[in-house]
Amino acid sequence: MIDMEKRRRVMARSAALGHCICNPKQPCPCETFRTHDICPCAGERLEDAGVAQELRLTELVENAGCASKINQADLRRVLDGLPEIVHERLLVGTNACDDAGIYQLSDDLALVQTVDVFTPSVDDPYAFGQIAAANSLSDCYAMGGTPLTALAVAAFPIDTLSHDVMARMLRGGIDKIAEAGAVVVGGHSIKDSEVKFGFAITGTVDPRRVVTNAGARPGDALVLTKPLGVGIVGFARQLGRASEEAMAAITASMTQLNDVPAIVMVEMGVHAATDVTGFGLLGHLSEMVRQSGVTAEITADRVPVLPEALEYVREQMISGAIERNIEYAQQFVEVASGVNPDLAWVLYDPQTSGGLLMAIEEERAHALVERLHAEGVEHAAIIGHVVEESAGRIVVTGEGGSTVNAVAAPTIARAPSELEPCCANPPGAQASEPCCANPPTVETSEPCCADAPDLAMGTADAREAFGAFMGAVNAEGAIDARTRELMVLALSVLARCEPCVRIHLDKARAMGITDEEVNEAVWLAISMGGAPIMMFYQALKGQA
Fold this sequence. Notes:
Layout: H1 4-17, H2 31-36, H3 72-79, E1 90-92, E2 101-106, E3 109-118, H4 125-142, E4 146-156, H5 163-179, E5 183-191, E6 196-205, E7 220-224, H6 230-238, H7 244-255, H8 259-268, E8 272-275, H9 280-292, E9 294-299, H10 309-314, H11 320-329, E10 333-335, H12 341-346, E11 356-361, H13 362-374, E12 381-389, E13 393-397, H14 459-474, H15 481-494, H16 498-510, H17 515-529, H18 531-543
Parallel strand pairs: 4-5, 9-13, 10-13
Antiparallel strand pairs: 1-2, 2-3, 3-6, 4-6, 7-11, 7-12, 8-11, 9-12
Helix pairs in contact: 1-18, 4-5, 6-7, 8-13, 9-11, 15-16, 15-17, 17-18
């Protein structure tokens, strides 16, 4: 039930200020009021008024899922300027660039602590809640930890989205945390224009069995537990191009916990591990090889990929998040000339709630994969090897490929087109001259605005030309003089041109136009411009 008295009181304050009192960046009446006759500042909600919302969460955000993370290059620039944090009980901190922090409590007990928050990667609120929880838990699992408690962190546009949407998000997260054997103990929420959700996780681990990203050794095999392509399919969804089957596949992957791989990897003695999320496979692997001081070789054809992801790459649905991942990681990466260029893009794709990447002795790798398959981790695969010590490098090859003529980033092979835009070549393409050195020219039979006044003419000439223009515009034609004068008056109010309003008010009265007609025209302008226009006109009338 809408409280009309409260609405009038709140909107009167907004009108007096010339700004909406719950969001000073917008006028009053706001778009929600214009569209749905709902005043959020007065506590009115869409569901309270029976307004049905057709909701697609991924259309409400700029970057979906872990693609909303700050990229590695910018993050490292920020972190490099902070003081080093050292404590006798801090086993793994920010300097390690690892998945979670480890704080030792006793000889056989340490805390695992992590937090992860991001924007919706799917449209269904309950599924998004599940994914947010699974993604947050993954950092704990990647360290070999067992999650115990979780704190929910939510940002939500509560004024414009249904309470039920937020409740379903929370329910999905709570259920997934419970599936992991942990418990949600509380949380924090803020009002924001974009939906964001995640959890701060606290877990435990034996300090002697912590798995970090720094232990990979030459001779190790690299095992990945989930397929790639989540970000590509999600981006295609934002463009309205992803199929329901592709969305179902990425949702199933993102909601799957990494609990089984975490248990198995600790039992089988992996040397290093990390979870693959927003920085993509090559971004997260770049941290592993740098921290471990090794070179890794990835066989691109062995990397599992989600259905339709490669198809979308071939259709050039490659997000800016992939470009940002390339910007940082390509300094550590060599891609062989024989590698499928579509696969090369997928290796940089930001994942949301991706799989674990593990380094384990070659002799145990096949047994590890077989056990993961037996326990339901069906896409686990050996995707490469650690080949030698180094400062930290990654070599990407195809089956039996070499690194001859390697390039730093993928290219897309496609037929030349006369319609291809300037700068169409992707990263890694070679050119004899800089991009856009010869931009295309557009020839027309007549240049735009050919008949416009020459602004270089003298002031008197310009004034005369403008006067002639105004005379032609104001000449009576299909619209009669009275109607035209009311239109000009309304436009003058909307433009907040005080001299214009005074001139045309006098002219309207001289033509016999009534105050009722003037008020109707002015209120049409106010309906388009909102409270600031109303305040301008009221102040102007008060001076008359």
